[in-house]
């Protein structure tokens, strides 16, 4: 170790490995999220807390169903990808890895729950017309 | 001589020695609103799953999730966080194109997202309450 120069020790560290890829992934995700958040606020948010029949009727409209499905997938991806920062920056080494494993699993679980709920609402609307 | 004083070097000055200014505050708020929105994911999923469970379960859960005054306050906070995080993200997308990086413009953008998010959240809340 004593014979390593400063430069030798610094090479390959920092953003050089995955930095550009990480930047691009966040950028793609951000453009997608911007469009979806605006659509969510206009089309889905008014349904939250509305009477049951209104919710089912609203969500099962093809456009809204697709928007909400994309919103679930995109939001949980964005969350999974960026919640890692909390562990990288604030959690001691060792525990950060455990935290990332848990939040990755949790992100996929949230995604599955959301899609399951949408499919179930769709099926319920077909069995008992409201 | 690369290893002289290794691991025993002074740390660079950190957050608490700086006087807060709009660029640092508007930056950290993106992180806070992003992480805080975890609550939003849980609450939207709660709403979806309640709707999936059928009319009786749905109405019972909405009494707490949307009709309770404290829940309404949380929803308002989440709407603001969503607006703030989105506007902050758009600011980064603008900066990514190497536009608006001059100090004066950047500070205006900082105030823009703070004020814009409050205006956006209030307007959204008013529209949602009327509709």
From TrEMBL, chain A:
Q: Look up the record and report any one GO term of the cellular component aspect.
A: membrane
- Quote the protein name from its UniProt record: Succinate dehydrogenase subunit D
Instruction: Please give the start and end residues of each transmembrane region.
Output: 31-50, 62-79, 99-123
State if Transmembrane helix is listed as a keyword: yes
Q: Does the keyword DNA-binding apply?
A: no
* Species, as recorded: Tropicimonas isoalkanivorans
The source's superkingdom equals Bacteria
Question: Which keywords does the record carry?
Answer: Membrane, Transmembrane, Transmembrane helix
From TrEMBL, chain B:
Q: Where in the cell is it found?
A: Membrane
Q: Which cofactor does it need?
A: heme
Cross-referenced CDD domains: SQR_TypeC_SdhC
Cross-referenced SUPFAM superfamilies: Fumarate reductase respiratory complex transmembrane subunits
The entry's free-text remark on the cofactor is:
The heme is bound between the two transmembrane subunits.
Q: Which GO terms describe its molecular function?
A: electron transfer activity; metal ion binding
Residues spanning the membrane: 21-49, 69-88, 109-130
Quaternary arrangement and interactors, per the entry?
Part of an enzyme complex containing four subunits: a flavoprotein, an iron-sulfur protein, plus two membrane-anchoring proteins, SdhC and SdhD. The complex can form homotrimers.
Say what the protein does.
Answer: Membrane-anchoring subunit of succinate dehydrogenase (SDH).
Q: Which family does it belong to?
A: Belongs to the cytochrome b560 family.
- Report the protein name in the record: Succinate dehydrogenase cytochrome b556 subunit
Query: Which organism is this protein's natural source?
Result: Tropicimonas isoalkanivorans
What high-level taxonomic lineage is stated for the organism? Bacteria, Pseudomonadati, Pseudomonadota, Alphaproteobacteria, Rhodobacterales
């Amino acid at each position: 170790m004593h014979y390593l120069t400063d430069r030798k020790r610094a090479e390959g560290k920092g953003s050089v490995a995955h930095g550009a890829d990480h930047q691009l992934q966040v950028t793609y995700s951000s453009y997608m999220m911007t469009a979806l958040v605006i659509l969510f606020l206009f089309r889905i948010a008014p349904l939250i807390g509305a009477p049951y029949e209104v919710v089912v009727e609203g969500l099962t409209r093809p456009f809204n169903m697709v928007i909400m499905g994309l919103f679930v997938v995109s939001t949980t991806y964005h969350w999974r990808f960026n919640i890692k920062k909390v562990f990288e920056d604030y959690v001691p080494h060792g525990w950060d890895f455990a935290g990332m494993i848990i939040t990755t699993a949790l992100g996929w679980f949230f995604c599955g729950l959301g899609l399951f709920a949408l499919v179930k609402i769709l099926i319920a609307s077909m069995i008992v017309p409201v | 001589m690369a290893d002289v004083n290794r691991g025993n070097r002074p740390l660079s000055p950190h957050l608490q020695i700086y006087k807060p200014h709009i660029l640092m505050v508007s930056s950290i708020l993106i992180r806070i609103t992003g992480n805080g929105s975890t609550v939003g994911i849980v609450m939207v999923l709660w709403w979806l799953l309640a709707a999936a469970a059928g009319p009786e379960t749905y109405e019972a859960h909405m009494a707490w999730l949307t009709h309770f005054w404290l829940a309404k306050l949380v929803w308002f906070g989440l709407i603001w966080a969503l607006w703030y995080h989105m506007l902050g993200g758009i600011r980064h997308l603008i900066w990514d194109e190497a536009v608006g990086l001059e100090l004066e413009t950047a500070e205006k953008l900082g105030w823009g997202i703070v004020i814009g998010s409050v205006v956006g959240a209030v307007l959204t809340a008013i529209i949602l309450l009327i509709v």
